[in-house]
Write a structure and sequence with these properties.
It is a single chain. The chain is an all-beta fold. The strands form 3 sheets. Strands 1-2-3-7 form a 4-stranded antiparallel β-sheet, with no helix packed on it. A hairpin with a 2-residue loop joins strand 2 and strand 3. It comes from Paenibacillus agricola. Keywords: 2Fe-2S, Iron, Iron-sulfur, Metal-binding.
Length: about 130
Amino acid sequence: MADHTIGTVADIPQGTRKIVVLEGIKIGVFNITGKFYAVKNTCPHQGAPLCEGSITGTILPSPPGEYVWGRDNEILRCPWHGWEFDITNGKSHYNPHQCFVKTYEVSIEEEEIDTVTVDTYPVNVEHGKVIVTV
């Protein structure tokens, strides 16, 4: 496994995604409330471009007759058949123990700031003359 720089944090604003190809594999990188996740861009059902699907939430367990919405922006819905996957771990919403998509580790590294240096030379003033020593 190799590390790949795909851009800066600013390139993937909160609530968006960036789809990249790394070592021949299409991967969607998602920014969910400032935390980054990477998911293989292939739905296990029929190979759809999963990461092009809608990002949504889901109904949480709740009492009968009550609908509680949650996990906003953490569920990825396949654009072909609506299969839903948890972006944070790749598990399917309907069968998390047997159906999942490959996920990848994402890390944020501090951006190196290029140091620009300027050569300076001593300057003296002698008897009204400016003298630079090189």
